[in-house]
Each structure stands twice: as structure tokens, then as C-alpha cells.
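Researcher: We plan to redesign the surface later, but first we want a full-length starting point. C-alpha cells attached.
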């Protein structure tokens, strides 16, 4: 397939675009490599800017002239954030479609704009989290959830396919870009995102002002990609081994070495198995294959550490119901979000015998306690790529992803 040749901007437009782009790179230097990768496409009369998933930014330069360089720079940063944060793919992962494009676009805009407005950038008419009835500093996916429950959200122009919203009417084509000429292909986009993430982390470590959400995104992207099965085994294995190795004196079983020292009968060590509780979020937004994979891994791990029975607490909006089972079985997912896993964690911690390990299987859209309940290791197993992971004393989170 041949890539579309894009006509260059007219001279005066091109000068204004260059000035705004330079200004944008000065305002958020860690975004410079992204801002300079955007390919402008003239969109006269469109009334605003949009970006497609091939990093083409559609610019109405008449509108830019009315905005001025400073506001145009802010808008360019806004569009760059859409593609840097990979909104297109994140929307696809949530099955955003024609009926929810608008809501996702609003969520993505709010997540970008609270950072930009926080840095006093003069965005024209920005959508902010408070317009969605949400607090600042949240993630796109959280805002989107909230909007799904409240579809009367205000009307909104699309920011284009690069925002994960509907394609803008001015988008030229969905053809893969001839990278560096009329867009950015997926391989280059990944490289640019890594470069930006690196610059974000460097800036934050230096003490520069960078939005906390962006830093979280960057650290997550740069995280070494350790396979989740290995992490889960480690998370479960460590506390399990510390219980089994402690053992308990058992006078009914003589020490196997006793025959070498016949005068001193000694107790053997009874093999102690850890008490494990698993709290399961039954929200239907959990990905079935990931849940099944995590359950298989946990069952195998518990068998290897000698756990013959565990408490399962099914946690949904109504209640947390503990039950005693031999292994994690088929779990039924129910609809509805809004589950609070802290209720299930409290129910688990109150169980007798008291668990030393509490595993939580969830999509991550829940508040978390600040620390693990006393005497327990809390292992949140998050079945979502995008949601930030909880942290705190005694908490060892594991993210279960599709391809890792
Ligand atoms: Zn936008």
C-alpha cells in the first residue's frame, strides 16, 4: 500500500505551526520528541485540531491564528498527549466503539487537560475532570467508567482516532503511515513513547514539574517486562515458604535423625501449610482469559506449597461471602462496577483460622487499604494493563497482562 502524500502547509501557516511547536517543546521539554514527530495536515474550516493514530495532527490554521501561538502550543501538547499515552490502543482494550467513542474521548481529554491546566497552559475551553464530576489526577480508564454510568455527559467534538475517539471527518485515510514522511508507524511510535517516558522520568528525578499521572505512566512503560507468572509465583512463594519453613514441633513424629542419637528423642517438624484467603472481584469487566490464567497459576502454586484448602471470598457490590474450598474453581462474573475490595479484604482478615496470605483477584478499579492487614501478606492480582497498582507495607501487587 502506498502512503498518502500530504500537501505541506502554506508558508505563513507553516511558520505559525513551527512557532507553536517550538513553544510546545519549551513548555513541556520531556514531550519534545513527540511534539516534533507530529505531522501537520491542513484542515481548513475544521474549527479545532485533531490527531489520528498515525500521529498526523489536523490543523485549522485560521483557528490557530485566532488562538495565538501560546494557546496553539497548548493544543499541540494536548494532541501529542493523546498519541503518547496510546489512547487509541487503550480505548480498543476497553472495547470502546461507536456508541462509547465520545465518552472515551471526554475521559482522555479530562486526564490530559487537568495536567496542562495545572501548568497554567491556556487551552481553549478545556474539558476537565470536574466537568465529569470526577476528581483531578485520575486515569483515563477511571473517568471512562464513571461516564459509562452517566451517559448524559456533555457533548464533545472528537479529537480524532489518535485519541481513541471517533475518526475526525478531516482524517485523510487510515493507511499505515510512511514513517517520517506522512505520519508515524507503530514501530516508531513505540520508540518515541519510550523516549518520552525516559525524558519524563529524568525530568521528574531532577525535580522538574511533571504531572504525577504522567510520571506513573512513564515508570510503568519503562518497567522491565518480567513475565507475570514469574512475579505471581514469587509473590505467593515468598510468604508461603516463610510459613512452611517455620514449622512446628511435633512430638508424635520422631526426628528422622533420632536413630543416630538414641539417647535424646527429639520432636520432628510438622510441615505447616500457610492459611490462604482469595478475594475475587466478580465485576464483569474482568477479562475472562486473564482471570482463568491467573486462577490456574494460583491453584498450581498453592498445590506446590502444600495448601489443601483455602477460603474464597466472592466480593461484589452487595456482599462479601466467604466459603471454604479445596481449589479455586469456576468463578461466575457478575455485571456492574463499583466494588470495594477493602470489604472483601476485611472479611478475609477476620476469618478463622486467620490467613497469612490474602490474594485479591480484581480488575483494579477499587480503593485499597494503605497497608496489608496485620500479620498478612496482601497480594493484589490486577487483571488490567492500564490501572495503577496499589502499594504499601505488606502489599505485593502483580499485574497480569495478556502477552506477558
Ligand atoms: Zn483531545
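Model: Full-length starting sequence:
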Amino acid at each position: 500500500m502506498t502512503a498518502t502524500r500530504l500537501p505541506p502547509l502554506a508558508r505563513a501557516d507553516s511558520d505559525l505551526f513551527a512557532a507553536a511547536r517550538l513553544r510546545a517543546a519549551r513548555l513541556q521539554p520531556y514531550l519534545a520528541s513527540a511534539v516534533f514527530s507530529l505531522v501537520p495536515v491542513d484542515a481548513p474550516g475544521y474549527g479545532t485540531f485533531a490527531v489520528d493514530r498515525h500521529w498526523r495532527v489536523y490543523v485549522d490554521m485560521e483557528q490557530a491564528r485566532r488562538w495565538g501561538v501560546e494557546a496553539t502550543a497548548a493544543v499541540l501538547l494536548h494532541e501529542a498527549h493523546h498519541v503518547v499515552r496510546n489512547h487509541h490502543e487503550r480505548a480498543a482494550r476497553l472495547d470502546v466503539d461507536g456508541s462509547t467513542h465520545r465518552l472515551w474521548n471526554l475521559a482522555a481529554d479530562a486526564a490530559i487537560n487537568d495536567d496542562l491546566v495545572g501548568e497554567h497552559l491556556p487551552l481553549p475551553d478545556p474539558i476537565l475532570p470536574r466537568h465529569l464530576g470526577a476528581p483531578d489526577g485520575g486515569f483515563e480508564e477511571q473517568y471512562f467508567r464513571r461516564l459509562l454510568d452517566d451517559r448524559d455527559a456533555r457533548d464533545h467534538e472528537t479529537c480524532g482516532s489518535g485519541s481513541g475517539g471517533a475518526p475526525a471527518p478531516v482524517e485523510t485515510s487510515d493507511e499505515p503511515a510512511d514513517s517520517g514522511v506522512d505520519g508515524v508507524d507503530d514501530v516508531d511510535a513505540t520508540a518515541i513513547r519510550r523516549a518520552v517516558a525516559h525524558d519524563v522520568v529524568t525530568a521528574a528525578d531532577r525535580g522538574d514539574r511533571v504531572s504525577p499521572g504522567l510520571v506513573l505512566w512513564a515508570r510503568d512503560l519503562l518497567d522491565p517486562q518480567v513475565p507475570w507468572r514469574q512475579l505471581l509465583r514469587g509473590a505467593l512463594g515468598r510468604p508461603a515458604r516463610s510459613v512452611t519453613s517455620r514449622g512446628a514441633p511435633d512430638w508424635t513424629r520422631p526426628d528422622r535423625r533420632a536413630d543416630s542419637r538414641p539417647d535424646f528423642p527429639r520432636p520432628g517438624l510438622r510441615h505447616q501449610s500457610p492459611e490462604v484467603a482469595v478475594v475475587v472481584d466478580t465485576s464483569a469487566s474482568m477479562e475472562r482469559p486473564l482471570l482463568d490464567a491467573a486462577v490456574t497459576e494460583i491453584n498450581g502454586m498453592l498445590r506446590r506449597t502444600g495448601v489443601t484448602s483455602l477460603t474464597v471470598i466472592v466480593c461484589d457490590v452487595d456482599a462479601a461471602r466467604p466459603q471454604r474450598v479445596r481449589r479455586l474453581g469456576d468463578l461466575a462474573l457478575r455485571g456492574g462496577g463499583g466494588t470495594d475490595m477493602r470489604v472483601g479484604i476485611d472479611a478475609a482478615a477476620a476469618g478463622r483460622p486467620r490467613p497469612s496470605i490474602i490474594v485479591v483477584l480484581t480488575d483494579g478499579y477499587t480503593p485499597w487499604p494503605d497497608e496489608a492487614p496485620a500479620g498478612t501478606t496482601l497480594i493484589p492480582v490486577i487483571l488490567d494493563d492500564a490501572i495503577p497498582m496499589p502499594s504499601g507495607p505488606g502489599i505485593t501487587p502483580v499485574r497480569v497482562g495478556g502477552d506477558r
